[in-house]
Design a protein that fits this description.
single chain, mainly beta, Porin, two-stranded antiparallel ribbon
């Protein structure tokens, strides 16, 4: 790309893939922490995103993920499986693109105590934000903090007054298309 000297930065075309409405795929591994009401210890979260850009600043994404959480003092393991649909708004910052996100989701909780197992399903929503750092035109490192607000988890093994949890994620994202 050739730019004449003295051309204002604002009029230069962006070289980042997110600014060109390209679809993306994001895979990440992260830490998950349960809401205080569930009395759970932090655990591992695995999630994947598929995202499509509506404008250079706004996208929609689907996220599928799971987390492994241990409830302290009860000998119970809780594993939420979630599917979220979100709207994401990002700001241009050169190589750094901060963003905010929010959406709705479906949450399935699998609870284990010894050899006994039970499930519960809930609707919920999530809110958060993060950043993308472009280290190549079509590849980024991502960081995200997301709060999943979920109702009560009620199974025959245990009842939790709040199934909400936080995730802090570090991952990678690749853009495809033009």
């Amino acid at each position: 790309m050739m730019v004449k000297p003295g051309t204002p930065l604002a009029s230069r075309p962006s070289v980042y893939a997110s600014d060109q409405h390209n679809p993306s795929l994001c895979v990440r591994a992260s830490l998950a922490g349960a809401g205080s009401a569930a009395r759970a210890e932090n655990g591992l979260e695995l999630a994947g995103n598929i995202e499509g850009y509506l404008t250079p600043r706004m996208s929609i994404r689907g996220q599928l993920g799971t987390a492994w959480l241990d409830v302290t003092g009860r000998g119970v393991s809780v594993r939420p499986l979630f599917f979220d649909g979100n709207i994401v708004y990002n700001w241009e910052g050169g190589q750094w693109h901060p963003y905010v996100t929010g959406g709705v989701g479906f949450y399935r909780y699998h609870v284990e105590r010894g050899s006994a197992e039970a499930d519960d399903k809930n609707a919920g929503f999530d809110l958060g934000g993060g950043f993308e750092y472009f280290f190549r035109r079509r590849a980024t490192i991502t960081g995200e903090l997301l709060y999943h607000n979920v109702g009560d988890v009620m199974t025959r093994l245990a009842a939790y007054p709040d199934g909400s949890f936080w995730t802090f994620a570090i991952g990678g994202k690749a853009y495809f298309g033009r």
